[in-house]
Amino acid sequence: MYFGIIQVVSKEVRNMANIKSQIKRIQTNEKARLRNSAVKSEIRTAAKKVKLAVVAGKADEAEAALRATVRLIDKSVTKGVQHKNKAARQKSTLANLVNEMKK
Description:
Elements lengths: L1 E2 L2 E2 L12 H37 L2 H20 L5 H19 L1
Antiparallel strand pairs: 1-2
C-alpha cells in the first residue's frame, strides 16, 4: 500500500506525518515490529518443541531442543527483542521441565 511517499508493509496508516524524518521513523518502526514478532514466534515454536519432547519422555531430544531454544532466546536479548530478565525466566522454566523429566 502506498500512502503519499511511504510504503506501509502491513498496518494501515491513518494519520501520516508530514515531516520526512518521522516518515522514515514510521517505516523503520514497522520493519522492526515485523522482525520482532517473527523472532518471538520462533522462540515460542522452539519452546513448544521442548515441551513436546518432555511430555513424550524423550530426554535426548528435549536436551537438544533446549539448547537450540536457549540459543534463540539469548540471541533475542542481544538484538533487543526482549528483556534479559524475561529471557532468564524462560530459560529457567524450560530447564526445570527438562531436569524434572530426567529424575
